[in-house]
């Protein structure tokens, strides 16, 4: 099997398997390397083994192509039964992939020569009608649409195993991602979800399904043709359950000394969660997955190497992908053809970040407003406010991005000296944009009001609050929604930095200098007018984010309260040091109970007023490294930081907060809720617990009904990395957002993979290309260190930097010295 994957250059090989035909003319899966009693000249077939419920989980186009081939085979053999309309639509996508756009004579002749389904002649006109609608669809898109249609069919991926019930009625059993299915003919008559099944077993020819006690009938019995058939179906069930449901491999049981009972079969391949969370290689999933799932994969795991360096002999259009793995020679040659001067690199940074910024605006103007338009609970005033604020900004930046792309394209291309001098500049575009932004200053000033208005509406409507929370859990909303709302204000800070760099790079005599200087003055003027409001709304946004992360507090986001620092400290108690989350404001210090609830929230245990608090180092007193004592109202609290630098940061900010508390007259109130409806059983004690079934893929359909919160917020990252951040750190992070291409080195080879990367909110978000709608994975960087790659690490490439946290190391390579320094 590994040889086949290597030959195909297949990364997502875990969905596939090998099978052969036995003496009894039954297809048997090849489970392990051993000698099977089979025909002398056995033919092994490469087939799809596991059919995921969502075809979008297949991220490699080669994988989708192979799945499409399996669908074609199932259609032709009659295994995938469906209505005539569905069959016609499926075949139309197949021939669009095979012969391209519709041309009546060619299409008819192709259908006469090639048989895709039984009784194809009767459906030829319907197939051609559907094919005519696919004009312009690429082969890769056709495969995607084919799987989209096929995955909705009841018989998609179903492999029937003949059986009988206790009364002797002929039935068929099958297994799917959701459980064990029972068919009569091709009609499904029963479905046993994995959550209802207590145990699967077989005894001779009898296949037994033991259900959980709350179901009326405890054990179901089916009679199969032979013991071998029974055992084969049992193995298939074990594999499917492990692949789709077993997210943590159980510890092996100790072997008996004398006798053993039962089958020795164990399914040890990677499961679907492992595929989805395979770090940074190709199979990335983030967004609605919890922080622990994505982070555990990225921090505790490393990417596997590409299966082979040789190109695949399989000719398929989806292999010509912009996000594919490049060889070093290809990448180096491409880089040599691009300009390398700083002005071009600054312009390229502007282009890359503008692409990301426009995507963020589209999330508000298209995705979020589209969701609000469908809801009756949204006030019309809020809809009008959002559209009148963000749509003019979106229109402006769409036009600006088009101009930037055209200018950079001419800058990179060959042209005469006169044309080069005119086109190798962006100051004129920036000046024009800055002047238009000044005209849009009214919209920029209304952004703060949009955040306030949305929060007021959510407080007034429980339904709207749920809508916003569900939207935040979608893949496209990779950072908190309010951060997207504030992105136009953040963008001004980046324009100022870009223009400042250009003005420092150009001599005053340069043709582009005067435009850059004038644009910088306009942007600085606009920024100065908006900065006081930005500081206020940034603090308010962080308070709102914390309000969602915390249980047991009320009225956290009020006027006058400022966040100073949040992070992890260890509290000294009779049981020793116990990890806690601390939240420092200008009037109060809050700290949590141990762990995180099942809704990804922290439960606040206690509040300490800052008025009259004293802080002193106590390492010598308690013998605990990096510890200090907080004294307030004749009570003391001993806490310890993870390092001396962390202790110094906390003590400095605490002393500053105590001074600020003296000036806050009457702000502190009892923030703790009167009732804490949090059961102890809901609290998760460690990050390892977060990787269990609670945070795994949904087991019973959509989770939208649950009050699940984002699991990748800054507070969660601080908890898992045992670190802290201050409000100053947030301000610095806003000014250091970045987008662009990075090459990531594989762990055990010299191969590099090109990725589109967005750095924001202390996190690297990885995409295949800049056109992707949502990130495929994320790597929170709090706690990581960044250094140069040393000579001893045998990486003989320029512009390589290393990210490392404990024993976890990643190497990234930039396209130029400029981007390396950035």
Automatic annotation (TrEMBL):
Listed PROSITE patterns: DH_2 (PS50010), FERM_3 (PS50057), PH_DOMAIN (PS50003)
The organism's place on the tree of life at top rank: Eukaryota
Domain DH: 342-533
Pfam families: FERM_C (PF09380), FERM_M (PF00373), PH (PF00169), RhoGEF (PF00621)
SUPFAM superfamilies linked: DBL homology domain (DH-domain), PH domain-like, Second domain of FERM, Ubiquitin-like
Record-annotated PH domain positions: 562-659, 735-822
Keywords: Cell membrane, Cell projection, Cytoplasm, Developmental protein, Guanine-nucleotide releasing factor, Membrane, Repeat, Synapse, Synaptosome
GO molecular function: guanyl-nucleotide exchange factor activity
PANTHER family, per the entry: FERM DOMAIN CONTAINING PROTEIN (PTHR45858), FERM, ARHGEF AND PLECKSTRIN DOMAIN-CONTAINING PROTEIN 1 (PTHR45858:SF2)
Protein name: FERM, ARHGEF and pleckstrin domain-containing protein 1
Organism field: Cyprinus carpio (Common carp)
Lineage, top ranks: Eukaryota, Metazoa, Chordata, Craniata, Vertebrata
């Amino acid at each position: 099997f590994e040889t086949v994957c290597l030959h195909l250059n297949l990364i997502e090989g875990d969905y596939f398997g090998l099978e052969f035909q036995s003496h009894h003319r039954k297809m048997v899966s090849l489970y392990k390397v051993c000698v099977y009693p089979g025909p002398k000249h056995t033919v092994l077939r490469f087939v799809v083994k596991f059919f995921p419920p969502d075809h979008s989980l297949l991220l490699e186009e080669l994988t989708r192509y192979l799945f499409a081939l399996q669908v074609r085979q199932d259609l032709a053999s009659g295994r995938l039964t469906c209505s005539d309309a569905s069959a016609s639509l499926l075949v139309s996508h197949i021939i669009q992939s095979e012969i391209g756009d519709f041309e009546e004579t060619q299409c008819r002749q192709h259908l006469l020569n090639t048989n895709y389904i039984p009784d194809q002649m009767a459906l030829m006109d319907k197939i051609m009608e559907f094919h005519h609608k696919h004009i312009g669809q690429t082969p890769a898109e056709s495969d995607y649409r084919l799987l989209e249609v096929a995955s909705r069919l009841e018989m998609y991926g179903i492999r029937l195993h003949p059986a009988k019930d206790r009364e002797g009625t002929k039935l068929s059993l099958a297994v799917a991602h959701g459980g064990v299915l029972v068919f009569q003919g091709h009609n499904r008559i029963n479905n046993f979800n994995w959550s209802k099944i207590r145990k699967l077993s077989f005894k001779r020819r009898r296949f037994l399904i033991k259900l959980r006690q709350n179901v009326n009938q405890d054990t179901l019995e089916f009679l199969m043709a032979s013991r071998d058939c029974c055992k084969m179906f049992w193995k298939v069930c074990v594999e499917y359950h492990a692949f789709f449901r077993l997210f943590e491999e159980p510890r092996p049981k100790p072997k008996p000394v004398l006798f053993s009972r039962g089958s020795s079969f164990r399914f040890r391949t990677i499961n679907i969660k492992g595929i989805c969370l395979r770090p940074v290689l190709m199979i990335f999933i983030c967004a609605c997955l919890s922080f622990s799932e994505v982070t555990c994969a990225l921090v505790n795991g490393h990417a596997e190497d590409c299966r082979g360096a040789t190109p695949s002999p399989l000719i398929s259009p989806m292999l010509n992908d912009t996000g594919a793995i490049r060889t070093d020679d290809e990448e180096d040659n491409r880089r040599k053809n691009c300009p390398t001067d700083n002005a071009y690199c600054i312009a390229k940074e502007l282009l890359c970040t503008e692409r990301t910024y426009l995507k963020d605006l589209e999330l508000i103007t298209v995705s979020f407003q589209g969701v609000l338009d469908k809801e009756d609970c949204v006030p019309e005033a809020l809809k009008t406010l959002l559209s009148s604020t963000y749509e003019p900004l979106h229109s402006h930046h769409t036009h600006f991005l088009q101009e930037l792309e055209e200018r950079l394209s001419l800058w990179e291309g060959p042209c005469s000296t006169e044309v080069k001098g005119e086109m190798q500049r962006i100051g004129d575009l920036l000046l024009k944009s800055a002047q238009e932004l000044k005209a849009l200053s009214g919209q920029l000033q209304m952004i703060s009001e949009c955040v306030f208005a949305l929060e007021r509406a959510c407080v007034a409507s429980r339904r709207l609050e749920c809508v916003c929370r569900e939207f935040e859990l979608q893949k496209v909303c990779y950072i908190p929604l309010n951060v997207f709302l504030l992105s136009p204000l953040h963008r001004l800070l980046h324009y100022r930095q870009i223009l400042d760099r250009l003005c420092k790079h150009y001599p005053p005599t340069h043709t582009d200098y005067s435009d850059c200087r004038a644009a910088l003055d306009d942007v600085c003027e606009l920024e100065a007018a908006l900065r006081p409001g930005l500081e206020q709304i940034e603090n308010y946004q962080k308070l709102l984010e914390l309000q969602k992360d915390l249980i047991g507090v009320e009225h956290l986001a009020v006027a006058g309260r400022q966040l100073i620092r949040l992070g992890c400290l260890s509290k000294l108690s009779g049981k020793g040091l116990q990890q806690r989350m601390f939240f420092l404001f200008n009037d109060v210090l809050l700290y949590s109970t141990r762990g995180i609830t099942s809704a990804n929230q922290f439960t606040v245990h206690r509040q300490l007023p800052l008025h009259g608090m004293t802080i002193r180092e106590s390492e010598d007193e308690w013998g605990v490294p990096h510890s200090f004592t907080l004294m307030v109202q004749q009570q003391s609290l001993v806490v310890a930081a993870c390092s001396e630098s962390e202790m110094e940061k906390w003590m400095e900010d605490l002393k500053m907060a105590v001074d600020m508390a003296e000036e806050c007259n009457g702000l502190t109130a009892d923030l703790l809720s009167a009732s804490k409806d949090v059961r102890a059983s809901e609290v998760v004690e460690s990050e390892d617990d977060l990787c269990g079934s609670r945070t795994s893929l949904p087991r019973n359909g959509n989770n939208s009904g649950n009050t699940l919160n984002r699991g990748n917020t800054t507070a969660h990252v601080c908890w898992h990395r045992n670190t802290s951040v201050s409000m100053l750190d947030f301000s610095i992070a806003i000014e250091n957002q970045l987008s662009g291409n990075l090459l990531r080195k594989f762990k055990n080879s010299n191969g590099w993979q090109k990725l589109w990367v967005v750095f924001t909110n202390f996190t690297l978000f990885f995409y295949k290309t800049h056109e992707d709608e949502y990130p495929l994975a994320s790597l929170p960087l709090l706690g990581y260190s960044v250094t140069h790659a040393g000579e001893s690490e045998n990486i003989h490439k320029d512009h390589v930097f290393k990210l490392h946290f404990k024993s976890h190391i990643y190497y990234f390579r930039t396209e130029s010295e400029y981007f390396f320094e950035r």
